[in-house]
Known about the structure:
Number of strands: 6
Low-confidence stretches: 200-225
Strand content: 5-15%
Shape: globular
Structural class: alpha+beta
Strand order of the largest sheet: 1-5-2-6
Amino acid sequence: LPDMQGGNTRDNSSALNASYSELIGLYWLWKNCDAQYKSLVHYRRLLGSADKAEQHQKDPYEKLVDGPELLSFLSDKDVVLAKQRNYYIETVYGHYSHTLDGSQLDKMRGILSECCPKYLPAWDNLMKSTCVHVFNMFVMPASMFDAYCAWLFPLLDELGQRIDTSEMDSFACTLAWPRERAYARPLACHQWHLVCRASGGKPRTGGLGKEGLLLLSGKVPWQEV
């Protein structure tokens, strides 16, 4: 597309697209973008506005959060996330295992135990929980975004070395899946304050704009790997 910045430009990981999926966009922003704030959303999953008037707009795109509203959230919070999903009848680990390969999460736990064991309590609590922030969607200041990516990508690279994808289809071998289940808990462990916003499916279906605030704090300090 004209004037579209390609993910295969400058310092990029586009060769890993089959396994990294939207994470190649995350990597590109980390390495090449100098914006004050950085974010990741999707073509059909977007963050909704907390403004009641906006929530009742007929045009679903008018229900979305805008820049000034995001800045108001970030004036006293560190990270904006999609609102957490509740599984109710099964744990995060159980839900993942029923959909994909639970051994991938076991391997990720092993990597955490070797590289940054202080995150294990948060990881274990997440796996036993019935609530999780999914969708790989967030907004945060560049300094936090870059620090998070510097922590995340070495772990994912190691996970990629330990997963045999030779007999997996393209859906199952995506490393974005383990990362999607795990990303909010490390943010909490860094003692960042999170504000959670509702997210929706395809904008034409509505479902955007319900306000949800959740502050998370953790006792596990930042640990670089």
